[in-house]
Design a protein that fits this description.
The structure is a homodimer. By secondary structure, the first copy, chain A, is of the alpha/beta class. Chain A has 8 helices and 6 strands. Chain A has 2 domains: 49 residues, Helicase, Ruva Protein, domain 3 (Orthogonal Bundle), CATH 1.10.8; 135 residues, Dna Topoisomerase Vi A Subunit, Chain: A, domain 2 (3-Layer(aba) Sandwich). The longest helix of chain A has 18 residues. Chain A is globular and about 65 Å long.
Amino acid sequence: MRSSRLPSVSPEIEKLIDLLAKVPGLGRRSAQRAALALLKKRDTLLAPLAQALVEASEKVKACSACGSLDAMDPCAICASPTRDQGLICVVGEVGDVWALERAGVFRGRYHVLGGVLSALDGVRPEDLRVGKLVERAAAPEVREVIIALNATVDGQTTAHYLTERLQGVDVAVTRLAHGVPVGGELELLDEGTLLAALTSRRPF
Amino acid sequence: MRSSRLPSVSPEIEKLIDLLAKVPGLGRRSAQRAALALLKKRDTLLAPLAQALVEASEKVKACSACGSLDAMDPCAICASPTRDQGLICVVGEVGDVWALERAGVFRGRYHVLGGVLSALDGVRPEDLRVGKLVERAAAPEVREVIIALNATVDGQTTAHYLTERLQGVDVAVTRLAHGVPVGGELELLDEGTLLAALTSRRPF
């Protein structure tokens, strides 16, 4: 493998490329392109980006209720009076909150676990925000906890664990439906999904 | 098209995503992932990146001789006593300097034009560092100017223009060879490349 280090580049540029290459989505080559583009657009891109990074770092915190990220605590979603206080949707990461908000399909509140249980990665229940979930679920206004974890082995293991932990709490515990993705082709789906879609079939 | 704006995200995060999405190589979705990753790794990635951006912005300048980017002026390559002062390699952008330096195949100095002539984009000779090239090429130690512009229509138009401009100067003007890329398959090459490779064939 040929190294893509640049022997004759200044340490300032090298450092910038090194850090950009650690940003998910950018490899080393694209980090070099990004560094050049940033240096070309100093006033319109580089300086504002540096500023935005500092501001986000200073102001954005995890919500003490749901664990999502916001400049307010509690976050805008937890604090909103228009969101259904009776529904809590449990997700693994903040990115999942964003995915559901993008879709605009859920009007309750969230609970971000901060990951899923994983024997391989050594993630234990005490590493996740499980205690806080049980505490929130026990609030009198909460009717239902929707477990919206990834449909992976670890995600489903975590879902089962949460169901057990929530057994003493007087709430309905539900999970997202499995089935054919909208726009998905049957031919390309795995057996597990097809089985789930078939057994959960609905009247037309 | 569904918008991927996040209605319930704080302006600080939204701003960060907006700017990250302008970095070449990151689309809007990957900018969201990048923003989350940065906020997760505040001390190890976000803060150092903000710092590196500021430092690069303050220290990195265009070399007054060759136009490449460095924290020194003249740049490390122009200032190096071990590089052949008799050879100037003309490239379009700083990224081309980096590509050649990565390959480690050229031991002379560079000249970055800052683009190529383009009727479509309105790039005229006076927008490029052509005068400076003629001036540098006229220095007594310079033997050869190698034109290493992209093999595109604009690149080749620019190459012809430079050849004309350098006609009064006592230097050899050469260009990169056209031919089959190393590792390239004949079947996938265009006619122009095949013709160039055939007419420039070399004895085994």
